[in-house]
Amino acid sequence: MPSLLPYGLRKLWSHPANLAPGGLRALVRCLGRSSAWASYQLQKRLGLFPNQGRLIPWIDGLKVRLLTSSKQSQACLYYGTPDWPSMQFLRRYLRPGDLCADIGANVGIYTLLIARHAEPANVHAFECLPGNVPKLPANLRLNGLDAVTVHELALADCNCLVQLHASDGDSTASISSYSSPPESYDESDLKGRVQARRLDSYRWLDRFAYIKVDVEGAEQLVLQGSEQLLCRAPPMV
């Protein structure tokens, strides 16, 4: 445990969000929030705080529910904008009316930011990990972004069941193809598998302005299932 403290401080100090103009203020805020988070975890261990987590202010007027089981929400506490270059780009690039997809949405950190700038009704979020599925719409409701369309499934190269490879965390699960035809499934086949669809199998009425794909190594399956879309109307980003 003692070795984690200097590691965490170095990571906070070197994060791009804290090195940018005004970064010192961001660093001070992150340190303050990190101290509050450590206090929260201690209170939770002592049974002094409810298990449903704590609401924290994020960026652009958004809120995130901070959970001990969610590395994504913790990253918002520690770094403000965890993927600083990508998120700063999104804030400048997206415009109301842009059609966007968040593939591998997790608990909705990118989805929230995209929906804030591109209008919720134009945003589609895809998430298949059972532990994340209820947290994603919950974060959207907290921010009044219920109009985002949440697809509780994986995107892959087929409309079928795929194997889900879960892990201890909430952000490192992945999928792999499962080639048995649907008529051959039995009850044992369903264990550890989730429904998948091709992105091509949806009827998109507009061209995507932005598609984010973060599916822990299964990106090729997503691209293979999007081949027709990418050839007909490739997204701007």
Oligomer state of the chains in this structure: single chain
Contiguous low-pLDDT stretches (5 residues minimum) are none
Estimate the mean pLDDT confidence: 84
Query: Biggest sheet: strands, sense, closure?
Result: 4 strands, parallel
Number of domains: 2
Number of helical regions: 9
In the sheet with the most strands, the strands line up as 5-4-3-10
Number of strands: 10
CATH superfamily of the largest domain: Vaccinia Virus protein VP39
For the record, the CATH architecture of the largest domain stands as 3-Layer(aba) Sandwich
User: How far apart lie the N and C ends?
Assistant: 41 Å
CATH class of the largest domain: Alpha Beta
The third-level CATH topology of the largest domain is: Rossmann fold
The string of secondary-structure elements, in order, is HHHEEHHEHEHEEEEEEHH
Strand content: 15-25%
Going by helix content, strand content and strand pairing, the class is alpha/beta
- The helicity comes to 25-40%
Radius of gyration: 19 Å
In one word, what is the shape?
A: globular
Describe what you observe in this structure:
The chain has 237 residues and is an alpha/beta fold. It folds into two domains: 1-82, no CATH class; 95-237, Rossmann fold (3-Layer(aba) Sandwich). The protein is 37% helix and 18% strand. It contains nine helices and ten strands. The chain has helices spanning 4-14, 16-19, 23-45, 71-79, 84-93, 109-118, 135-142, 219-224, 227-232; strands at 54-57, 63-66, 99-103, 123-126, 149-151, 154-155, 160-165, 174-176, 193-197, 208-213. The strands form three sheets. It has a four-stranded parallel beta sheet, covered by helices on one side. A four-stranded mixed beta sheet has the order 6-9-7-8, with no helix packed on it. Strands 1-2 form a two-stranded antiparallel ribbon. Strand 3 (99-103), helix 6 (109-118) and strand 4 (123-126) form a beta-alpha-beta unit. The longest helix has 23 residues, at 23-45. It is globular. The mean pLDDT is 84.
